[in-house]
Write a structure and sequence with these properties.
Layout (H helix, E strand, L loop, with lengths): L1 E9 L2 E9 L19 H11 L16 H10 L4 H12 L1
Antiparallel strand pairs: 1-2
Helix pairs in contact: 2-3
Length: about 90
């Protein structure tokens, strides 16, 4: 929660008012359709950024597309066995 002090001059009186702005962000994870495998990462990111209709969304700050194989390799590099890594990804993407 960000707090800002606002000074207002009213009829020769300096008024101090504390204004509170709520800052919230949403993190959304989506699973893409099989058809997305034919598109490049750049195309998918641009399509989401330009065409997403999300209630209460002022703007989309970041969009990142992650390939499941890359996630699998990252898990293996951290010492997670292959079958466990694959099961985690299967659970995560269902």
């Amino acid at each position: 929660m960000a707090k800002h002090i606002v000074y207002l001059k009213t009829a020769d009186y300096l008024v101090l008012r504390l204004v509170t702005f709520m800052v919230k962000k949403a993190h959304i994870t989506i699973n893409l359709l099989p058809e997305a495998s034919d598109a490049s990462v750049f195309q998918i990111e641009e399509k989401i950024r330009n065409e997403a209709a999300i209630p209460w969304c002022k703007n989309i700050e970041t969009v990142s597309v992650e390939d499941n194989d890359e996630s699998y390799r990252r898990l293996q590099k951290q010492g997670i066995p292959s079958n466990v890594a694959r099961n985690l990804l299967d659970l995560y993407t269902e």
